[in-house]
Amino acid sequence: MAQIVAATYNEHKLTEYRELLKDQKVEVVGLNAYKKMPEIEENGATFEENASIKALAANQYCDIPAFADDSGLEVEALDGAPGIKSARYADTDSERIARILRELGDNWNRRAKFVCVIAIALNGEVIETFRGEVHGVITMEPRGSNGFGYDPIFMPDGYDKTFGELDAEIKNKISHRAVAFQKAMQFIEDEMSVLDDDFS
């Protein structure tokens, strides 16, 4: 079975990746398997730039196909914040959630979206990026303990439960990461036959 490296140390993300790729003949390996790899500096100005930086660094260091995602929450009433700074908005998930709720207060506009951009790197270059989005609202308080990050305060359109309350099976079908992955897999299958040997 071929390997592909996911440019992340986040075990929650790796679990989602492996679930999303379970039907592909590929083993997903995280950066935890490469203890000596230098830290990747995410200094891009967009999700696309940061995903590309991470995927390319992992591909060049690990010398196998690599992909990375950069994702975050954009809250309409906060002018798109936290955006690309979502993981750095505070020190812990609970503190990040508390900051969002504090900054929103009782604002009637709770519209928000999760964004995920996946970049694929092969042979020392980024070959494509794929964007996935899921729209919804920010709840008044955290609900549910599933998922991670901002999941307990994000309720996707068409559902009455937050990502923190929804079953993983449902979330993995509708999430921003799932949408981006579907686009990436479709691209590989339909347009990049040269990659088929690397992913099979």
Concise overview:
The chain contains 6 helices and 6 strands, in the order βαβαβαβββααα. It is α/β, with parallel strands linked by helices and 200 residues long. The protein has a 6-stranded mixed sheet with strand order 2-1-3-4-5-6.
What does this structure look like?
This protein is α/β, with parallel strands linked by helices and 200 residues long. The chain has helices at residues 11-20, 47-62, 93-104, 168-174, 176-191, 193-199; strands at residues 2-6, 26-30, 66-75, 111-122, 125-138, 154-156. The chain has a six-stranded mixed beta sheet with strand order 2-1-3-4-5-6. Helix 4 (168-174) packs across helix 5. It is globular.
Radius of gyration over all CA atoms, rounded: 17 Å
**Helix count, DSSP H or I runs of 4 or more residues:** 6
User: What spatial order of strands do you see in the largest sheet?
Assistant: 2-1-3-4-5-6
Low-confidence stretches: none
Ordered list of secondary-structure elements with their pairings:
Blueprint: E1 2-6, H1 11-20, E2 26-30, H2 47-62, E3 66-75, H3 93-104, E4 111-122, E5 125-138, E6 154-156, H4 168-174, H5 176-191, H6 193-199
Parallel strand pairs: 1-2, 1-3
Antiparallel strand pairs: 3-4, 4-5, 5-6
Helix pairs in contact: 4-5
